[in-house]
Amino acid sequence: MNRRVIHIDESPIRFERWRQYLPNWLKRFLPSGGGNAEDHHGKGMFGFTVFLLSESIVFLSLIFTYVTLRLTHSNSWLPSGVSGPELSTFAIANTVVLLSSSFVIQPAENALKRRKLNKFRWLWLITIAMGTYFLIAQGIEWSNLDFGLSTGLVGSTFYLLTGFHSLHVLTGVLLQITMLVRSFRRGNYNKGHFGVSATTLFWHFVDIIWVFLFSLLYLWQA
């Protein structure tokens, strides 16, 4: 006989006391009562959230380094003849596409929860296309810039930040393709959809990071 096993929460902080006041969308990322043994989705989402927090620290360290170098080398930030990344219509359009994709991928996950598989696939496919567009546009922008990776601090920091972020976008697109392919396996999501939920959360994370990078790299230049 299968018995439901409960892991006792032995944390010195009584999370359950304040967890009840959190919005429902945030509760799904936190374990309840130590977590049920069968609750693979809940425990998995909590672990994945912790992973994204560690990724945030990496990005924050890079952003802090950029701001520090920018402030301490303001007079020599742009070498002679270099204009730096410009706030062009192309860059703005690319940003709009990426940020808008968050408003596509979330309804896709919601459609899967309601077992509307075809709607999930179409919305998921649109998100993949939007992410791919961003990567291609980012590559086009890199090829048209008047500075390279070795062009002083402006070059090394710009390509490091945008390159590291693009690597995350590429990872997100590959994860989305994997989830889309798996959706064609009969009964694949009958026991849960942790992969889709984790990929959706990862994509929101990528979009939020780009808001900070776009503000630093483009708006600060304007």
UniProtKB/TrEMBL annotation:
Transmembrane parts of this sequence: 46-67, 87-108, 120-138, 158-181, 201-220
Cell location: Cell membrane
Keyword Membrane: yes
Keyword terms: Cell membrane, Membrane, Transmembrane, Transmembrane helix
Protein topology in the membrane: Multi-pass membrane protein
Keyword match Iron-sulfur: no
Cellular component aspect of the GO annotation: plasma membrane
Gene3D superfamilies linked: Cytochrome c oxidase, subunit III, four-helix bundle
Stored InterPro entries: Cyt_c/ubiquinol_Oxase_su3, Cyt_c_oxidase-like_su3, Cyt_c_oxidase_su3-like_sf, Cyt_c_oxidase_su3_a-hlx
PANTHER family xref list: CYTOCHROME BO(3) UBIQUINOL OXIDASE SUBUNIT 3, CYTOCHROME C OXIDASE SUBUNIT III
Name listed for the protein in its UniProt record: Cytochrome oxidase subunit III
Organism: Tolypothrix bouteillei VB521301
